[in-house]
Design brief:
about 180 residues, mainly alpha, globular
Length: about 180
């Protein structure tokens, strides 16, 4: 996303770690957990690759249109699956944001801000508001789950792939990452 190198590498590490944990969550015995974890792993690794600082690696021109196609497909899948549950609407917004950022990078792969005018473009501003609200709500939702998990008996601790507080923490970290990436375009 062509921001400063140090925060960029921190964002890469955060997103890659989140994607890796989501891969672990795919081993869950719950079918819906596995599907959501797969979508979130794609998003985490996609964000990690997109966040690599431009000073370290400048991708070829075909990468950004390929990103738009991959995440466009993910958005269509999320739209299809959203018929059965509203959680997938967030996946739809996240995939659409990735398509938007890929299109911006296609239009201006070396500039930090692809829109010539001053100020924040309306779509970027809308996505920033959405993800800021998502991060705040997700952070608040983590509090009761963490308190309940701390009081659970040692014998009833769920497996790594089935821990709701860790899944929410992953979603929170990806929301924070999305905010950081949107701020750089």
């Amino acid at each position: 996303m062509h921001g400063p190198a140090s925060p960029g590498w921190l964002l890469v590490a955060l997103c890659a770690a989140t994607g890796a944990y989501c891969l672990l969550r795919m081993r869950s015995s719950d079918e819906t957990q596995r599907r959501a974890a797969g979508d979130e792993a794609l998003m985490g690794f996609g964000m990690a690759v997109m966040a690599v600082p431009g000073s370290a690696f400048t991708p070829p021109a075909w990468v950004w249109p390929a990103y738009a196609v991959v995440f466009g497909g993910a958005a269509l899948r999320a739209l299809w699956v959203a018929r059965g549950g509203t959680h997938h609407l967030h996946h739809l917004v996240g995939a659409a944001a990735m398509v938007y950022m890929a299109v911006v990078m296609t239009a201006s792969p070396t500039a930090g801000h692809a829109h010539g005018g001053s100020g924040v473009p309306l779509l970027t501003g809308g996505l920033l508001v959405y993800f800021a609200a998502y991060v705040l709500v997700s952070g608040v939702r983590l509090l009761p789950v963490a308190a309940a998990a701390g009081s659970a008996a040692a014998g009833s601790v769920p497996a790594w792939g089935d821990r709701p507080e860790l899944a929410r923490a992953c979603r929170l970290s990806m929301g924070i990452g999305m905010l950081a990436m949107l701020l750089t375009i």
